[in-house]
Specification:
Blueprint: H1 10-17, E1 32-36, E2 39-42, H2 43-59, H3 69-88, H4 92-111, H5 116-125, H6 130-150, H7 159-168, E3 174-175, E4 178-187, H8 199-217, H9 222-229, H10 235-238, E5 241-245, H11 257-265, E6 275-277, E7 280-290, E8 293-294, H12 297-328, E9 331-332, H13 335-343, H14 345-348
Helix pairs in contact: 1-2, 2-3, 3-12, 3-13, 4-6, 7-12
Length: 351
């Protein structure tokens, strides 16, 4: 429910954020590709953006056919121009908010990788340095703040629209049966490298799991044991608690088959025997099974409002970008790119 322009995953960020790079020694020798009031894009800048885009695809084991180069370059050029136009309009408040959001994004991004070295390696694979990545994240956060102020915040969604959406999208608000459990894990693979333990190490983990299970069955505080002994990497955040549906109802939120089968077969407050999965040995306590239900409007209202605002923002952004380009009197000097942008504005415009 977030705008594709603003809310981007970090693996894609390198390709989407690398478009303003240009070497200092090429600044005056590069051919100008596009220009306007507050906008200047040179060939080297666009080439660097294209290289970063291809590197990002390669990191995801994808390739770009050469015949699509002009189409992709036109898309990247449009993004470079729009980013420059948006950042030119930023206020000091926009910049303050953008810095805060960029710092949060960078902090969360680093949590998704095992180490700073791994983070740097992944950036290098996509043609980025940490400093460049940080600058581009700030630049995009700044562009987002301008869009929020000049487009998103001016959109008005009425209560009638919310009710209409709720009534005509019944399936979206159907919540399947879910299990809420507490869970203790002793891993049988290295959580950093994902490599499986040796047979001997697995036996050691199994024996340790058996001892922990005996302590749980004897009445020890399961929540305390989870915090002390579980090797689930998310235990500090969720304290071993998960809520999930069956895979057939929502495969995106499902647990592995063995875990699901154990959880949905137990009674409330029952503790399982050891449940082996590809991740290790689990001890599961069922807290509750919640029956299927329809999310009430009072609970769904906020999400519906957000979705409708984002949808309207996405519709308004191409018109807003067109207005900015016209005001800046943008000229695309490369004939092929100009033709591509003129022929397929809906594909090349940043949405």
């Amino acid at each position: 429910m977030k705008s594709g322009f603003c809310k981007i995953g970090w693996a894609l960020a390198a390709a989407l954020l690398a478009w303003n790079v240009v070497a200092a020694d090429n600044l005056f020798s590069d051919l100008m590709v596009a220009r306007g009031k507050g906008v200047e894009v040179r060939r080297g800048q666009l080439d660097d953006a294209f290289i970063a885009y291809k590197a990002n695809l390669a990191a995801r084991k994808q390739e770009l056919p050469e015949e699509r180069r002009t189409q992709v370059e036109a898309m990247l050029l449009d993004r470079i121009m729009i980013t420059q136009l948006l950042t030119n309009r930023a206020s000091e408040l926009d910049r303050t908010k953008a810095r805060d959001n960029a710092l949060k994004f960078l902090e969360n991004t680093r949590k998704t990788v095992e180490s700073e070295d791994a983070f740097i390696r992944q950036l290098r694979a996509m043609g980025m340095t940490p400093a460049l990545f940080t600058n581009r994240v700030f630049e995009q956060a700044l562009a987002e703040e301008v869009i929020n102020r000049e487009v998103k915040n001016k959109i008005d969604v009425t209560p009638a629209q919310v009710v209409s959406f709720y009534q005509t999208n019944d399936q979206i608000f159907r919540v399947p049966e879910t299990a809420r459990v507490q869970h203790l894990l002793l891993s049988t693979r290295d959580l950093r490298t994902r490599q499986e333990y040796s047979a001997e190490a697995k036996r050691t983990q199994h024996e340790k799991a058996e001892r922990l299970l005996a302590r749980v069955k004897a009445g020890e505080d399961f929540s305390k044991l989870i915090l002390e002994c579980s090797e689930d990497p998310t235990v500090k955040e969720n304290k071993g608690e998960y809520v999930f549906p069956r895979a057939k109802d929502d495969p995106r939120r499902a647990m592995v088959a063995e875990f699901e089968a154990a959880a949905f077969s137990m009674k409330t407050n029952q503790v399982s025997d050891l449940v082996p999965t590809e991740y290790g040995y689990h001890i599961i306590k069922l807290l509750e099974i919640a029956p299927p239900r329809r999310t009430p409007l009072t609970e769904a209202k906020g999400r519906i409002m957000d979705f409708l605002v984002e949808s309207e923002t996405a519709k308004e952004m191409p018109k807003f970008f067109k207005k900015l380009k016209e005001e800046a009197k943008i000229e695309v000097l490369d004939p092929k790119l100009a033709a591509e942008l003129a022929a397929k504005p809906e594909e090349t415009s940043l949405k």
